[in-house]
Amino acid sequence: MIQFDNCAEHNHWDELDKLHFLRSALTETATQILLGTGGMSYSQLLDRLRSRYGSQEMEAKHLTELQCRRRNKGESFRELAQDIRRLMLMSYPNERSSMSENMAKEYFIAAIDDPELELKVREKEPKNIDAARNYAERLEFYKGTVHQGNRRYARRVAASPDSRSSSLEERTVKRDYSRSKSRQRLHESSSQSNHRDNEAHMSTKRNKKQGKNDDRRVCAINVDDKWKEEFMKEMQELKQNQQKILAENSALSKEVERLRYLEQLRSVPVPASTSVAAPASSSTRISKSTEGLFCM
After folding, report:
1. Could you list the pLDDT tens digit for every one of the 296 residues in the chain?
2. What residues contact 130, with CB distance under 8 A and at least 6 apart?
3. Is the pTM of the predicted complex or chain greater than 0.70?
4. I need a labelling partner for 14 at 20 to 30 A (CA). Which of 55, 167, 187, 277 fits?
């Protein structure tokens, strides 16, 4: 229809000319629409074509496809931009303002499906979809060139790691690498020395602690020996006191027996005698005998 409108505008066709040329331009299955259209005008025939072959009812489907469109593997940015434009025309057929161009640009940037590249394209602030496509193609080319150069340099270094290079970049890399190695060695040596110092400090601590423990054990042994000696002395003193008490008890028991014997003698009655001299003599004898007992 765009081509037909272009021809009609260029040739200055009126409504009747448009009707005849459109009826003759239809081919294949579209010619079936002409059945029963003898009295139709150009606008009625055009509406009938749009109702059957138009995309007005498919706009929601195309809009969803536009929102979910992402770049396929191996697809170029030019093909992606063309497809975004096609979907925009099918989703918004009557929209030709600058807003539609801005929307197409946003849909194209979102369809790149690469966060890093998308961020760089947005930093360029492109005005339309063509500018965004040019920035994306350029950035992708630069990225591929840098990666290819890094791979070549990695292969060259892997093939000849000891070879000398005259480029400033390689010399800088080697110098940084040697400095990092020397720093690593210094760090390892310092860590080893610190480890040895810590071990020596810990060994001295252990030795001091062991010496203190030995001194404590010796003191404990000396205390035990002194306690045993004192205990033995006290036991001997107790034995001696016990022997003294036993001797005193035996002496007291003997005195008690003597006193009991004297009491028994005193309690014995004196027999009556006929003569007066006899009792006197007997009493004197008893007194003498008692005196002799007390003297004992």
Report:
1. 788 889 888 998 888 888 888 778 887 877 777 777 677 788 888 887 777 776 556 777 888 888 898 988 888 999 999 999 888 888 887 777 778 888 888 889 999 988 888 888 888 888 888 999 998 988 888 887 876 666 665 666 555 554 444 455 666 666 767 777 777 777 777 677 677 777 777 777 776 666 666 666 656 666 667 777 888 888 888 888 888 888 888 888 888 888 888 887 877 765 655 444 444 444 445 444 444 444 44
2. 81
3. no
4. 55
Residue 46 and residue 82 in one domain:
no
Domain ranges, residue 144: 58-155
Residue type, 170: E
DSSP state of 296: -
At which of 155, 179, 209 does a domain end?
A: 155
> 23 and 90: one domain?
no
- Supply 26's token pair: 């239809």
Tokens for 118, please give them: 């998308």
